[in-house]
Amino acid sequence: MNSTHVKFIRSFLVAVFLVGSLGLTQCQATPGQAASVQNEPAAVTPAPGNDASALNLSTAIAKVAKDTIPAVVHIEVTQSQEVNDPLQPFENDPFFHFFFNQPKNTPHKFKRELKGLGTGMLMDDKGDILTNNHVVAGANVIQVLLTDGNQYEASVVGTDPRTDLAVIRIKAKEKLPHVTFGDSDKIEVGDWVVAIGHPRGLDQTVTQGIISAKHRRGIMDPTSYQDYLQTDAAINPGNSGGPLLNLKGEVIGVNAAIVSESGGFEGIGFAIPSNMALHIADQLIANGKVQRGWLGVSIKDMTPLLARKMKLENDKGALVADVVKGSPADAAGLKKDDVIIDYQGHAITDAASLQNEVANTAIGQEATLTVMRDGKSKTMTVKIGDLQAAVKKMASSAENRLGASVRAVTDKEVQQYGLQEKSGVAIASLQKKGPLAQAGFEVNDIITAINDIPVNGVEGFIDIVKALPAKQNVTLTAIDHRTGQVGYAQVVTR
Asked: Which run of H or of E encompasses 219?
């Protein structure tokens, strides 16, 4: 494989997002070869003993590696894309053809095939594999290689972009080795951990480090559900979807991202906690999708200044900025400027922690909240609603503002227009005299930004549109579904 081709593949698979002067890299890489073979796979069991600190470090790491490697799989994906001809706008320009000798009647679209790899872990002996969504999103073919050399084509059981998790499945005749999951809530800062994966295509690579921090949020897309464990165990492109384990051999995290200027490991890696990962994976296996609870409030973080103004002891909690009429929060009596400090016995430190807690609550369950109101503590009970149903209801409000209903972009559209996962929404229907129809939009056009704010899926679109004042000029960035060309249009909200 030549260096030019390697660079091309990495540009597809190693997504880099700037965070200040740092780059945030999801841990995928280019394809590689299997390093060794395990001849007798067996179910993975935790190392004996309850006190990991009492174990000899070197032998503990060796045992974790030996026991877990058979359950860690190499994932290789293939994605086919249609790419628009960038010279298409000039096809009828005689001067362009004269000066550049461009042949006429060239294809308007070209096909290309991209490959990449990641890591996964067998969850059970039947072939269910937990990995990251960004490893398999948009893939046309998923190949899984086991440590015994056997290779299988995998099917997608379900994906959840908002937590960057996915479950895929292979069909094997024999029972398969699998990992054991631990309680990520019990892990402490400073605890030793082990990472296993396929960085840069180097199969079955084992690294070690400690938990550097817990509850890292705001690392990736702010609309996603995040509660990362931070570690200094070496994680590189290709490690995505691999396990982060304690010294008892239990999975306490799913490796997902690194902060890096170079694109490689620089001491800051992030893993999705196992408790969150298992909750999502169980739903994907059972239903093929994730159902999330809904409270019906707009919330934001507290600040020291707000805490002093409200005469509170500290700045912990989630401040209620608005309550949706007719929502569970409204029915329970929550009010604007309430500060939610406890949810179901769990301390709420900020807005993200409340968002995660509510999302993980079963629909219809009654939850107990503790709020601070006018300097006094108040306990109330709320019946949690269905987030998906709420989104559909709120979407009708957005439809009235712009005269259009929207839907999530399909995998085919992601490939066709070269979109990032969750990026943009497609127009599902138009009101003939609505703002978008009047501006020339058509069904299936893709809206990617509003006033330069990226649109992250239907929920992100609704949040942006809800915040727009009436009768205001807004600029939409969109993709013409006929030509694939990006353009801009101004519309006036209702």
From this structure: none
Identify the pLDDT of residue 420.
Answer: 72
Q: Do the domains 293-383 and 391-492 sit in the same CATH topology, yes or no?
A: yes
pLDDT digits (tens, 9 = 90+) for 161-172: 889 999 999 999
Cα 441 from Cα 464, distance rounded (Å): 19
> Given the DSSP bridges, would you call strands 192-197 and 205-216 parallel, antiparallel or unpaired?
antiparallel
Q: Which two tokens stand for residue 73?
A: 């799989």
Q: Is the Cβ–Cβ distance between 137 and 156 less than 8 Å?
A: no
Structural domain boundaries in the chain: 1-290, 293-383, 391-492
Catalytic residues: 134, 164, 240
Q: Which token pair is 404?
A: 């259009």
Q: The CATH number of 1-290 is which of 3.40.50.2000, 3.40.50.300, 2.40.10.120, 3.40.50.150?
A: 2.40.10.120
180-181 and 250-260 beta bridge pairing = parallel
Contacts of 180 (CB under 8 A, 6+ apart): 44, 45, 46, 249, 250, 251
CATH classification code of 293-383: 2.30.42.10
Q: Are 15 and 134 in contact (CB under 8 A)?
A: yes
Nearest residue to 340 (alpha-carbon basis) of 309, 311, 368, 372: 372
Handedness of CA 345, 348, 354, 357 (dihedral sign): negative
Task: Name every residue whose Cβ is closer than 8 Å to that of residue 486 and which is 6 or more positions away in sequence.
Answer: 448, 477, 478, 479, 480
CATH number of 391-492: 2.30.42.10, 3.40.50.2300, 2.40.30.20, 3.90.180.10?
A: 2.30.42.10
Residue indicated by tokens 């840069």: 200
- Give the mean pLDDT of the chain: 83
Question: pTM (2 decimals)?
Answer: 0.73
Per-run averaged pLDDT (10 residues), the chain, 494 residues:
32 31 49 37 48 68 96 93 63 60 64 87 97 92 95 95 94 95 96 94 93 87 81 93 96 93 86 96 94 90 91 92 89 94 93 91 94 92 90 74 87 78 84 90 93 85 81 91 88 88
